[in-house]
Amino acid sequence: MSDDILLLPPPPPNARVHYGPAAQRFGELRLPTTKGPYPVLVNIHGGFWRNKYDFAHTGHLCAALTAKGIATWNLEYRRVGDQGGGWPGTFRDIVDGYRFLPRIAQEYELDSGRIAVMGHSAGGQLALCLAAHEPSVKFAISLAGVADLRRAWELHLSKDAVAEFLGGSPADAADHYKEADPMQLEVAAEQWLIHGLIDNTIPPDFSRNYHEKKRARGENVHLVEIEKAGHFDLIDPRSAAWKKVEEIVAKCF
User: What global pTM score does this model have?
Assistant: First the structure.
């Protein structure tokens, strides 16, 4: 991350702020209309780590949370298909984007002591992985997250997306799986896993098995299953499932 990045002027309710020199290394910052300092939710979008999916599809959930008084930092990052994307470049962007917040906290009235991290689908993996590698993360929320990368490989989810991301199978890229797989990592943060029971993109047992195994290891992890929710209901403020997501986010502040 460069130390001479020019920040944008104080933003309107949403504005792009670059945390690094690559075109994809920015966050969309939304601020409540009330007076700060504001708690901050770092949001990490999904899309199986591929560059055909970007931050825009989670803008509406960030706007909904900002309307509730929470500043949101909707991260964009290099993905598979971008120069430098894939492991470890993708994760390096997530780390840099998260670490950038204290640098802009005073300017944008952010409360750097109240930050939670949330990710959807592949973003859920990145959020949990960030919490494992960054001890300052106190709360991590996974929405239908790919919380078990070995299992994702076994099921060949989205035509072996995890192999594209990590550079091969668990046998071919063992070190990358060890570094990236939330199931294999120790997470000190309080974790909330939310999963819809009719999710046909990431099976609900990804969160259920993660919860069971991590609880057995003594981690502070909670599981919320929503009976009639699919994969994208969790990021849609118009859905019946959204109220529960909003409730869990509020618990983290």
Answer: 0.94
